[in-house]
Please model this.
Amino acid sequence: MPVPKFSSRVLELLRLGFSWFILCSFPQNQAKTDAPDDSPSRADRRAVPYLWRMTDHSTPMTDAGVFTSWLRRMLYSLATDSDTHTPCGDCTGCCRSSNFIHIHPDEKAALRAIPKTLTFPAPGAPKGTRLLGYDAEGRCPLLSDLGCTIYDARPRTCRIYDCRAFAAAGLIPGTATDHPVGRKVGTWRFSYPTSHDKKCHQAVVAAARFLEEKADLFPGRKPPADPAQRTILALKVHRVFLERQSDPDRVASIVEASSRFEAKREALILRKEISPRRFR
Ligand code: SF4
Model:
């Protein structure tokens, strides 16, 4: 395989360093949404073919919303650590997925609500960060048959978790049938009122694939192997895939887009008054 050549722009970006933003995933159970029980239209299948293949056709579909509206809101949530308002219905898949949940020192309400005996210091994380574990069946110890017992004070990780992101990127945790979240992911259906909605969705899927298949083109730190982290990165850099570029230029653009997102994130966190409408 030919060795890719990297422009001075790439090398400069790498020298400055960039970090892949890590979503430590997870759940919540919130607003109820009625699920339309129709299957994806032929147009949807043409727009995002993988979605048709990964769909569990025995389960009613769930309306995931207009793609670009969802994407804008999701990026805003990632940039500001704000609630994603995922219409989980009665699904608690992410609370049953054997996930460790980070609780950061500034999450006072969550730290007060969770018995200290259920958490432990998070290895390698800033001082004061705790990890919430799960039981032998992979369930969060705060999950009851009625849902989260500390819903109003649940950790930030749970608030920003939105499994529609997996549907957007075409990456599913586990397989669609054997994973509590994978099953739900296969039932989401976005709508595409404009051609731009379809193009954006195809760009996110293309970004996720590129990050997986062309990981070796990234000198230094490679894109994350974990599907959740790769999904989040694909959302952040999807715009790169709205244009045609050579692979080396694409790598440079991805690094640049990721750095730009983190810079915007820092700016937004300092100015929380910015509305999701203005987040592009
Ligand atoms: S804290 Fe609540 S929302 Fe978060 S994983 Fe546990 S039960 Fe689910």
